[in-house]
Amino acid sequence: MRRREFIRLAGSGLFWPLGARAADAKRVGVLMNGIADNRVAQGYVRIFVGELDELGWNARQNLQIDVRWNAGDPALARTYAKDLVGLHPDVILSSSTTNLMALREVARGVPIVFVEVADPVAQGFVAPASGSICSRKSRRASSGSW
Questions:
Q1: Which one of 6, 16, 49, 61 counts the least CB within 10 Å of its CB?
Q2: Residue 128 domain-assigned?
């Protein structure tokens, strides 16, 4: 699958076609805000992984998901951003402005999908309707999930 097609599918929430072979395994980096034992944040990750599973992407067959937690520390966000990029993911999910700032510095050429970033255009993360960083509005905002 070509990078532009992957970015388009990831940004639209239709992550990859069903029926991919194990040889076509994809790697997703996830940089979360907060601490790993936060039940609410863990729920967000479970929902994300569950949505991917419903689309035919799971760790047992064709997907590697690497999750890191910044514990609210910008220095740790920078460390984990470098760590995730070093794993050569196909796409990175970023939760928070702090994490997006850290990833923007090191993730050259890696598509980034972000959530929980207020006004990314005003903050200079993206130009209106352009760039390789994208966000998707929550389909389940009323239920408290992404």
A1: 61
A2: yes
Q: What does DSSP say about strands 133-135 and 63-69: parallel, antiparallel, or unpaired?
A: unpaired
106 within domain boundaries = yes
| All residues at 6 or more sequence positions from 63 whose CB lies less than 8 Å from its CB, including other chains | 25, 26, 27, 28, 52, 57
Question: Is position 117 within any domain?
Answer: yes
Cα(41)–Cα(36) distance, integer angstroms: 8
Closest C-alpha to 33, from 41, 24, 25: 41
The domain tally of the chain equals 1
Strand segments, DSSP code E, in 1-146 are 26-32, 63-69, 91-95, 112-115, 133-135
pLDDT digits over 55-109, tens only?
A: 999 988 999 999 999 999 999 999 999 999 999 999 999 999 999 999 999 988 9
Closest residue by Cα to residue 30 from 10, 1, 12, 5: 10
Element housing 9 (H / E): helix 3-12
What is the domain-level CATH number for residue 85?
Answer: 3.40.50.2300
Looking at residue 141, its pLDDT comes to 40
Chain mean pLDDT for the chain: 80
Does 13 score more than 80 pLDDT? no
